[in-house]
Model the fold of this input.
Amino acid sequence: MRILGLELDTAVVRAAVLDVVTGQPIGSIARANYSVDRPTPEAAEVRLDRLWSAVSTAARSVAQAVDGIEGVGLCVITPALVLLNDQDKPAAPIWLPDDRRARSAARQVQAEVGAELLAETGNGPIPGLVSALSFRQMLGDDPYLIREVRRYLHLNGWLALHLTGTAAFDPANASLTGVDGTLTTQSWSQRWCEYFEVDPAWLPPVLDGAATVGTIRSAVAAELGVPAGLPLKLGTYPISLIIQAAEMKPGDLLHDLGDPQRLIVRVEKPRADGRRLVSRLGLGDGFLETVFNPIGPGALRWLHLLCFRDQSEEEFHHHTIPQALETKTRVAFDPPFLKGEMLSITANRAAFRDLTMAADRMDLLASLLAEMRRRHELAMETLKRDVSLQRILVRGEDAEFMRGLLPGRNQVPIQRIEVEPLTAICHLFL
Done:
């Protein structure tokens, strides 16, 4: 079976025709960039028409070159809040997950109902990662907006609506709205809908990510370069698809070497804990708990360019970093949040402390590596409280290099995986 896979990430859309049996692209992978608007330093938004232009451009460039496409599947960043009016036109730009403008709304919610929200939805008021916070901030900025809104969707739900005429949420996206009883009823919560002023009538049904939402309408099929009437799989966010493709089970840990690093376990009974992000899986049963190590490979690349530009990557990685691991220093990299702190309401930043005129670049590198290791141990302990680890799956182009930097895992088997979200879309059709 051949399918068109569409992956929507921040600032880029990727598309490929995929062979479901082999899980590999047929032909090339297309990439279409779209610009993200940043009207304020913490904003990250995009207009729907601009995003759709990128989607249709990427899809058409691969679909027209291959015959026999039998379905379309989605993999989409979350949460990305889409508000529509009674004509299904945008009532506001899409607020992307990188948007942190909802900090003031989050502080108010935390003071009023933070513990209750955490206990029922699994997450506190996290700017950018809980879309109801974005909605609350939007209403604070423009109280008249609520008169226009008739649909409250995340991005894959809007794509489903645009492509088929039917909207939906997958369970993972529902968990990150702030109005889903993830730890209780696993359905839309009347309590939190009322609190966040989200009319339940705006919310579509929650369907498994592998569900067929509908068929591609003729009005948009030509724009994608596919025949009308193809089935559309709703899909879910990238980590859920990667976990499905890697056949990850309870007791496994996925270590995703991005910036920040993410450590994720699949559990049957999640627990509320403000140090973890909780969501439903998106495909099938189960839940995910995620913790973050704020210092990833990007922090090392940053320090390389800042202080060790005279060294090649090979010299920096194979000579300087091992030397820094053995270096004792009084300098501390604390706080370490070069890219902010994912689960914090406060806009935390990074700093080096205890600097003196005697400190040099090796002190900076040694302190960064020491804090990376310490944060990794903290993240591991946060997850292992309720989980007995059986296997660790490591994903990322820096996997082999980073493996030597991080503390040992007490003989837990480690397996590197090379699953990409775009090709993992095939698992929606299996």
About this structure: The domain at 247-420 is CATH 3.30.420.40 (Nucleotidyltransferase; domain 5). The radius of gyration is 22 Å. The longest helix spans residues 361-384.
